Amino acid sequence: MFGKIMFITENVAHVETTSTAEELGDLMNVHVVFEAPDQRILGEVEEVDAGTIKIRFLGEFHDDKYVSGVIRKPVLSSKIRTINDQELNAIVGVYDGTTFKVGESSIYKGYQVCGDINNLFANHMAVFGNTGSGKSCGVARIVQNIFSNPNLISYNANIFIFDAYGEYRTAFCELDKLNRAYSYKFITTNMQEETDFPLNIPFHLLSLDDLTVMLQADKHSQIPILERALKLTRIFCKNDEVAERYKNHLIAKALIAILYSNQITANKKNEIFKILEVCHTKDFDFDSTIQGLGYTRSLSECFEIDSNGNFGESVLITDYILSHIDEDLEMTEEPKDAFYSMRDFANALEFTLISEGFQNNEQLYDDSMLLKVRLNSIINSKIGDIYKADQYITLNQFIRKLVDNRGKKAQVININLEDIDDTQAKIIVKIMARIFFEFCKTAKQRATMPFHLFLEEAHRYVNKDSDVYLIGYNIFERIAKEGRKYGVLLNIISQRPVEISETVIAQCSNFLIFKMTHPKDIEYIRTMLPNISQDVIEKQKVLQPGNCVGFGQAFKLAMVIKMEMPNPAPNSNSCNVNKCWGIELNEGAELEVPIEKPNLMEEKKLPTAFVSQQMADRLNASNQGLQNGQPLNLSDIMSSTNMNGSVIAEQVTPDTNNNVFFSNQAEAPVENANNMVSETLEQDELVTAAQQQTIAPTNIIQDINNNN
Questions:
Q1: What is the Cα–Cα distance from 452 to 446, expressed in whole angstroms?
Q2: Over 80: is that where the pLDDT of 147 sits?
């Protein structure tokens, strides 16, 4: 079959062939070995001519172990043969406690491709492919195979699937049937089953970076506002004497700044009342009592303007305000175990905006108003419910709560984002990713509790945005660069890799590429992954659904893998249009055709008439005769009516069980035949007149009415 090596160019050997044309057809993509003393080099047949075979070098075998890459080329006298079973097992892998089944080799039937668990799941992975190419089924099958391995009980696994469509629920809802120790948890914002859990992220666990992302800050000047508000929120949440004094201090400084300004008295009063309306305490409220010498005044009365245009109690109110200013309070430290809500933060934001340095600054005011609008929008929407909490919990307790499934440890946690818009879904995924990263980074023992984040439709979340410009990093890029050492691993699933951050893709060590056809996506992968060969690029273009090219650290070499259909499968099937459109009729029956009466002659809405197909054909024939200039003959039409002019409708009811818009019609509507004829002809003739401009519809209808 293989003759001598004719010559070697770069990484390809040109070999003579002794086979017939029929035998040569079975050689494509077959692996061969160049064997010589102390040398076994693996190659793959990539091109077959009439008398020449081109074989590309892939790697070498050393002591029955395969090593990717070739340091030295084979000698010209090497014996060339096809790969044997022992060598093939060294490439596709052996199924044991350290591996799992990825799928079946598309080249070598009956051989399972077994990936090394550490090499695949201790590194970042990317799954790319067109819609309908089998990405969701492939991911579901991989996770199912992990827990189906009888040689390994993956009890401590923490697989978080951020599900854009809620399609993975059906794939893992029976996880406990594989082993009673396993458990699956479904978290959603739209609970419909008793086993569902609500999506909840306590607001007090959010950091300054999280708030910057949540409120979509786009200027550096907005960050100090949020930082100050967060500090005040944590101080105020204690509701103790220090918190009350601090609030009074902030209000007093804001009021005294206005009193000492050069504004007219009326404007001063307006500004002061604006502050007291949004920021008030028991000491600074419109009804607060201020003690004078032998008399009392309410706070609002102190700001009444006298006949001279001044505050009548300017001395009293000034002394009162100054008595509440305490600069030492600015050194108050934030409590570490503060529990507060989103509304508490909104209240603290109001105090921030009256603080020194923020007042009378139009730029900061405009920037802060945008933050306030976005914050209140979240509070007053269903998204705000996600960030509510009943009591204070620590970061560790929150993580423990996430993996708890009514007393059982959950290995697969499915977070359904189907009912959340893309903007808020992106924010939630970023916040969750930051929480996981912080938890693992601050753990006493590094990388002892790995978290695998599967991001379905990753191009929605992992893309280029303003995070790096504002806070100095993007959480997904940071995890891609640093997460491996802490045990936070990304598994990105997308149909548009060109929209995903270059940094994240560059840090992925393993790839499953399903069929992709868009030239920009293909070129992007080729550019971002310099080690990917042209052969891999060409292979993925012609893949069948459910087949992928797997390559990377977990695979000895790039190979085409046929993924087994997951059982049970995710709910990711395409719409069955044929089934949705079609209905069934009894043999010999006719379908009733709905004819809508257009509102052409009068404003009132006309009902819908149902006639048989036979009746509709007769009406159309009558219309056609009228268009051809022939007199209208109503005898044929009237033959389908009784003496009272009511339509004799054949009672044919289609099977509408698969149609959610129509219920079964017990009886077809009956109307006066003359009116039906007029309205039907009116519809057809108006269309014809508009097209041919030869017949006036109103005259035709009048003639018909006269005949009737």
A1: 15
A2: yes
